Amino acid sequence: MQHRRLGQTGPSVSALGLGCMGMSGMYGPADRAESIATIHAALDAGITLLDTGDFYGMGHNEMLIGEALEGRNRDQAVISVKFGAMREPSGAWLGYDARPQAVQSFLAYTLQRLRVDHIDIYRPARLDPNVPIEDTIGAIADMVKAGYVRQIGLSEVGADTIRRAAAVHPICDLQIEYSLISRGIEDAILPACRELGIGITAYGVLSRGLISGHWRKDQAGAGDFRAHSPRFQDGNVDRNLALVDALKSVAERKGVSVAQIAIAWVAAQGDDIVPLVGARRRDRLQEALGSLDVRLTRDDLAAIEQAVPKGAAAGDRYAAPQMAMLDSEQG
C-alpha cells in the first residue's frame, strides 16, 4: 500500500481511504454483513483511513465501524469523524451545532459508539453560522490536550475560514468534495491549504457514483438522496452521462475502468490529496484499489481534460438549500 501524509502535522495514511457513509443508508439499503466484510477487506489490503460521521444513520455508521474493528489492533485504523449535523428521528436535517459544549457531548457519544478511547481526526462537518470557527477549533484543541483527539480537521469550508482555524490550532486536513466534475477547490481553497501545509481528503471522487461507469438512470430509489441531487435530475443527468461516455473512451484506451481513471485523476493532482472511496461492497473496493496502479501520463491527463473539461457538469453538487450552507461555496 502506498502512503501519503495528511498535511505537515497529520498522520501518514494509505493513499486511498474508505468512506463509510453509504453503509448506513444514505444511498438506500445496505447489507450489514457485506459492509463489515468490506471494511475488513479494506484493512487487510492496507487501507488505514476510515471516514465516518456521527450523523450517518444517526450513529449507526460509528457502531458499524466499532463492530468491524472489534478484536483488531486499534492502530490499524486512522479514524476520521465529522460531527455537528443534527437530525430528527425521521432522519430530516435540523442544521448544525458546533458550540464548545456540543463538541464535548458529540465526542463523548462517538467514543462510546466506536468503542475506542480516542479519535484520530475530529472535524466539524460544516461551519456553524452561529459559532465562530475559533470557538469550535478551540474546543477540539482542548480535547486534543485531554487525549481524546489526536488531530483536528475541517470539512467544506472556504479559504478565510481555513486561515482562521489554522491560527488557533494546526489543521491536518480539509475534507471536501473534489472530482473531475467538482473542481471548485482549485481556485482558492486548494492554494490556501497548500500555503498552510494542510492536506486534502477528497470525497465524492466518483460524484456519488455518477462518474463511476456503473450508474444507471433507474438506480435512485427510496432512501437514496441522489434522487434529489441536481446532477441526477432529468435535464442534467443525460448531459453528465455523456461526459462519462467520453471518459470511458479514455479509460478503455488505457486498459482501466472509468472508476479507476476517475480516482487516479484525483490522486494525480498532488501528493497532498487522499481520495476517499465510498465502496459498500468488496467488488467495488477491489476496483477502487486498482486505481493505485494507474499511472497517468501528460497525454492521459490532456485526454481526460478534453473528455471532461473543468466546469462541464450540469447541475450543482447539492440542492440549493444545502449549497447555501456550504462555507466552501461562498466565494
UniProtKB/TrEMBL annotation:
Keywords: Oxidoreductase
Presence of the UniProt keyword Lipid biosynthesis in the record: no
InterPro entries tied to this protein: Aldo-Keto_reductase, NAD(P)_OxRdtase_dom_sf, NADP_OxRdtase_dom
Presence of keyword Transport: no
Identification of the protein by name: Aldo/keto reductase
Residue intervals of the NADP-dependent oxidoreductase domain: 16-307
PANTHER family, A to Z: AFLATOXIN B1 ALDEHYDE REDUCTASE, ALDO-KETO REDUCTASE YAKC [NADP(+)]
Superkingdom to which the source organism belongs: Bacteria
